[in-house]
Design a protein that fits this description.
Structural class: alpha+beta
Radius of gyration: 19 Å
Strand order of the largest sheet: 4-3-2-1-5
Low-confidence stretches: none
Mean pLDDT: 91
CATH class of the largest domain: Mainly Alpha
Order of helices and strands: EEEEEHHHHH
Helix content: 40-55%
Distance between the termini: 33 Å
CATH architecture of the largest domain: Up-down Bundle
Number of domains: 2
CATH topology of the largest domain: Methane Monooxygenase Hydroxylase, Chain G, domain 1
Number of strands: 5
Number of helices: 5
């Protein structure tokens, strides 16, 4: 069970803070259950969810885990995900997202980047499904890494780029 103040990943919502544990003062809930009151870190609102929910939850990665994930980025192999059936492609992306692993989010982003380059060489544009899932993956990854590294979300891409460049040049001052 999480504690008040914990930062967690909650389903596809992303990073949330546990604000309270107990019975919220709202109607239409099961009074025999305990609930988490969650506040999304990067959006407004409150989420009331039973502590025994089947929706995926996990603690956010630690600062050292975030740095390790960034070190893995150059080694995550991207592949062009091609499928004429956009539903099948969408299911593939959803399956990767449902793992809730940062490395799978990076895989989606890198794969879409490679695909974008390939279709541009053919004079075409990237499909909406690829763009949609790349955006979701990027928002989830950047949100979690920003909180773990204690940096603004807007600086995550630059932080990653600088870290990868330092690794490639053999100069890592972390």
């Amino acid at each position: 069970m999480y504690k008040v103040g914990d930062l967690i990943i909650y389903g596809s919502q992303g990073v949330c803070r546990v604000e309270a544990i107990g019975l919220p003062e709202i109607g239409g809930i099961d009074p025999s259950k305990l609930y988490y009151t969650l506040s999304p870190v990067y959006s407004d609102g409150k989420i009331f969810i039973p502590v025994d929910t089947s929706i995926y939850m996990r603690p956010i990665v630690s600062k050292s885990e975030a740095k390790q994930i960034i070190q893995e980025i150059p080694h995550i192999q991207a592949e062009v995900i091609e499928n004429q059936n956009y539903k099948a492609m969408e299911e593939h992306y959803k399956k990767l997202l449902s793992s809730h692993k940062c490395t799978d989010l990076i895989y989606i982003m890198k794969s879409v980047y490679v695909k974008r380059k390939a279709v541009r060489l053919q004079g075409k544009n990237l499909g909406q499904t690829d763009e949609k899932f790349k955006k979701i993956a990027e928002e989830l990854l950047n949100s979690e890494l920003a909180v773990a590294l204690d940096i603004p979300r807007s600086e995550v891409n630059q932080y990653i780029e600088d870290s990868v460049n330092r690794m490639e040049t053999g100069y890592d001052m972390q």
